[in-house]
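The following block was generated as part of the benchmark described in Methods. Ligand: (2S)-2-hydroxybutanedioic acid.
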Amino acid sequence: MLDRLSAVPPDPILGIISAHAADPNPNKIDLGIGVYKDEHGDTPILECVRRAEQILDSTQTSKTYLGPPGVTGFNSAIGELIFGSDSAALKDDRVRTIQTPGGTGALRVGADLLKEAQPDATVWVSDPTWANHNAIFPAAGLEMKVYPYFDQDSNDLRFDEMMNTLQDRGPGDVVLFHACCHNPCGVSPDPEQWEAITDLATARGFLPMVDMAYLGFERGIEEDALSVRRFAEKCPEVLVASSCSKNFAVYRERVGAVSVVCHSAQNASDVVTVINSLTRKNYSMPPTHGTGIVDIVLHDDELTQLWRREVDGMRNRINGLRKILSDKIEAAGIEKDFSFLQRQSGMFSFLGLSVEQVRRLREEFSIYTVDSARINVASFNEGNMDYFIESLKSVL
Ligand code: LMR
């Protein structure tokens, strides 16, 4: 039976990891996958995580199953982090958060839940969106459509066109937003625009679903939660897929959570039983090492403060790199305007290159990006930026 299968191409983002690893060029640069790197090109374990892991190791007495919700302390701490400790929805007991294997797991559980609730629902995603969104929702059997989002000429948000499209959405439609640090374009609505989007969701009755993979990497932990908090305040139902991969740098531990805001406490309890039955059929119970670490950090004031400082450090470094990169590109005499890099935020931006230029960067200079020319700004450092700019100048 299995011999009916033929090979499929590797995922475009994940394929870059192995292509870069196999390249012997000492100047090679991996601008592909969204992983934070420090000045030395390393992705270190955060100090708060290292300390919490030691506590976990010395206090854990069993590896027995914890049951479908996993680490319940993690679930409640993430709920508070996302929605804010003063959230009315939390106080009204209308919110449930359940840990999942990473943010992707959260998206898939959320998609399965939507399919269960309304099989003919349509999920609207931004144009463009994270490539894996385009795979996850159809894999769950849901119809997917796109709404206008990024303007390639101005490198800004197509806000009016987005609102015009969302204006026609209603019950039965799910609209997926990126909470902050839009992946792949780095452009987010501003607070006023989020307000208008929230009002539209309330007026039209579509269900907002938020992918929150980069909390803390745009303006700050509280600031980046704005969209989710406004939706939870005003809309009867909200879905959130959150991830700790980036902001706790626990990528391979697969730490994420799906949160539901429901119209009543009873409905929220009922929905959790559905989530539990869906995950039971899929991975039975979630892994708990990474969530155990995050649970310890978020229940210890000192470690929480340390974590917040470490997130600030990662964000400030990325923002600093954005400015240096855009200044250096200008100083190198490149005519094309890259000042948008400074207006955008998070790890990703588009360079606006053709597939041919991307191929030349890869083949002639060992600089790896996905074909869309999305770059991970966090991959730059003092040692590789000038080489990148020279190479960019050559392909332009
Ligand atoms: C990315 O977009 O590079 C990250 O979200 C990592 C991934 O799994 O694709």
